Every structure is written in C-alpha cells, then in structure tokens.
Task: inverse folding
C-alpha cells in the first residue's frame, strides 16, 4: 500500500501552521486571534491549519503578513507560478495585450483540477466582476453627480 501524496490543503497547512506558530499564534485562543487579524472565520482558520481547507485568495495578503510568509510563497503553494505574478514591466510588452480569458480558462491554465477549487475561483472572479460593475454605475436618482455637481 502506498501513501497518498499530501493534498494541496495539507501542503498549504505545512507552510502556514509552523509560520503561524513562529508568529506567536500559539496556545488557547490562537485560532481566534489569527481569524480576527486576517478577517477569516475561526472555523476557516481551524480547517486551514489542520490541512482540510485553503482560504479564499482574498485572505492571502493578510495571512501572509500576519504569519510572516511571503505572499508569493502562499500563491506558489496554490500552484500559481511566481513568474506569472511579475509586474508587466518585468515580463515584457507582449503581456500588455494579452487576450481575454474566461474564469474557467484561468482555472484551467492555473492547473486547478479539483472541481470545488475551480468553482470557488470562478465564483470569486464573477463576484468581483459584479462588484466592479456596481461601482461603475451611478446610484438611482444620482445620474448627474449628486447635489454638489448640480449647483
């Protein structure tokens, strides 16, 4: 019988859990403190540290900061190659005119094969697009910039 390779969530926990411990998140209440400091729920922190789940990407910057792990390392653990995260000025001008890809194509290119992970990424991207669209639309009755603009 062969041992199964560790899951992505287990590898993520192997990176984050010791870092959280080194950053002082130890003892009673440590999960609650890490949750409060990162904006995650306590149950999400618990599942993450046990290697049962990976937090949503939106929590990565705060998590990286609080546990003292590079954001690039967290993203690399998710299978996102660090070179794909370089600023455009470092990757060359050919990247500037990249063709549009769908959220499903992004999941495919990132190598996400887990159906739940793929759906989470797609749903997150679609939600962010809806939020952007809502911010770009004026509030009802405020199409002309509000009272200050009408003066």
Result:
């Amino acid at each position: 019988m062969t041992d199964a390779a560790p899951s992505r969530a287990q590898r993520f926990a192997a990176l984050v859990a010791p870092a959280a411990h080194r950053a002082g998140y130890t003892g009673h209440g440590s999960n609650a403190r890490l949750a409060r400091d990162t904006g995650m729920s306590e149950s999400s922190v618990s599942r993450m540290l046990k290697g049962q789940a990976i937090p949503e990407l939106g929590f990565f910057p705060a998590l990286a900061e609080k546990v003292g792990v590079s954001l690039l390392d967290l993203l690399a653990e998710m299978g996102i190659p660090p070179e794909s995260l370089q600023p455009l000025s470092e990757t060359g001008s050919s990247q500037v005119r990249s063709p549009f890809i769908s959220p499903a194509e992004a999941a495919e290119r990132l190598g996400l094969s887990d159906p739940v992970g793929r759906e989470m990424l797609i749903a997150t991207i679609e939600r962010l697009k809806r939020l952007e669209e809502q911010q770009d639309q004026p509030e009802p009755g405020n199409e002309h910039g509000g009272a200050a603009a009408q003066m």
Q: What stands out?
A: The first helix runs from residue 8 to 22. The chain is about 55% helix and 0% strand.
